[in-house]
Amino acid sequence: MPAESIEKNENVAGINIADGIVSVSRMVRRGRKKILLTHAGWMEYAPDATDDEVVQVIRKLWKKCRMPTRTVSVGLQSRSLCLKYFKFPDLSQGELASALKLEAEETLQLPPEQIMLDWHLNRPDNDPYTQQGEQLQGVLVAVAKHQVERQLNLVKKAGLYPVVMDVGCTALCNLYLALRGESVNTENAVCVVNLSRYNADISILYNHHYIYPRTIISRSAEWSTKVQYLVENISDALLYYHVKVDKTPVTRLILTGFVPDDPHFVGHIHDTIGLPTEVWNPLRDESFMVAQSVKSDCSTPLMTTSLGLGLRNT
């Protein structure tokens, strides 16, 4: 969801405000394969904090991190977010736009003037344009307009300049593809799951850079007590992917974020789903470097989404 156009080589930081935590990150490329985290940090805010109190937390965090830019890519999290895979045959781009607007209105039960939406088309790298008469597939993102405006107003009141808005699933895809994109191809698909305090972003990556995402919400902050709920939703996502989306086999399950330390948690997921399962720390990935100036308390569970948002700078 672009807020403004992004200029080439724009100095952009990622900021995510969700689940009682503000996290920020800024990255630059070092060579063809390496990514350097230059600035990062996080701060908590009370669950019942007012917008003005959240703004003060953002300002304090910006000062604490000595962030060299005020241009930001903003994360959007909402319990009413519409995140849907779609596949339509024989539509032009104009017809596709109309079809997705109707889909958003039906899902959100709101009039069109109260909805903001965008979509991502799964397209080959060498064929980014859509011609009439072909099958179109991708991901629809839609949400109530007032929720987007509130999130943008928070960062604007903090003195920041938002240029783009993204959601957790696609930010997660950006991060994984940037660091481990070579493991996703026409022969192997990967299911990446990022656990935040109350949500889980499930993203299946296939055919080099195609995505099938799903977001689930937990009513409890303790994923350790919700493991069966998580397993059922990952299994459902995998089943829908295989039946409705693509036949490329998913060969690995990657867990990141707030993964409980209990080894039985990961073991249960592995044994039930039956895929090789890995707990992934992006900051320790061989393609990732962290500047000495970045404080050691920037733990990955708090940073995963903002890292994906910060990749706009690379």
Features of the shown structure:
single chain; 314 residues; alpha/beta; Nucleotidyltransferase, domain 5; Dna Ligase, domain 1; 2 domains; six-stranded mixed sheet; 14 strands; 31% helix
Structure report:
By secondary structure, the protein is α/β, with parallel strands linked by helices. The chain folds into 2 domains: 13-79 and 147-313, ATPase, nucleotide binding domain (Nucleotidyltransferase, domain 5, 2-Layer Sandwich), CATH 3.30.420; 82-144, Dna Ligase, domain 1 (2-Layer Sandwich), CATH 3.30.1490. Helices cover 31% and strands 32% of the residues. The chain contains 7 helices and 14 strands. The strands form 3 sheets. Strands 8-4-1-2-3-14 form a 6-stranded mixed β-sheet, with helices on both faces. Strands 11-10-9-12-13 form a 5-stranded mixed β-sheet, with helices on both faces. The protein starts with 12 loop residues before the first strand and ends with a helix. 37% of the residues are buried. Residues 2-8 have low confidence and may be disordered.
Question: Can you give me a brief rundown of this structure?
Answer:
The chain has 314 residues and is an alpha/beta fold. It is built from 7 helices and 14 strands.
Q: What are the low-pLDDT stretches, counting only 5+ consecutive residues below 50?
A: 2-8
- Report the CATH C-level class of the largest domain: Alpha Beta
CATH architecture of the largest domain: 2-Layer Sandwich
Outline, from the CA principal axes?
globular
**Oligomeric state:** single chain
Distance between the termini: 18 Å
The average pLDDT value, as a whole number, equals 89
Helical content (DSSP H or I, runs of 4+)? 25-40%
| Beta-strand content bin | 25-35%
Order of adjacent strands in the largest pleated sheet = 8-4-1-2-3-14
Overall tally of domains: 2
Rg is 19 Å
> How many E-type strands?
14
So, the CATH homologous superfamily of the largest domain?
A: ATPase, nucleotide binding domain
What is the count of DSSP helices, taking H or I runs of 4+ residues?
7
The largest sheet, given as strand count, sense and whether it forms a barrel, is: 6 strands, mixed
- By CATH, the topology of the largest domain is Nucleotidyltransferase, domain 5
Order of helices and strands: EEEHEEHEEHEHEEEHEHEEH
The secondary-structure class comes to alpha/beta
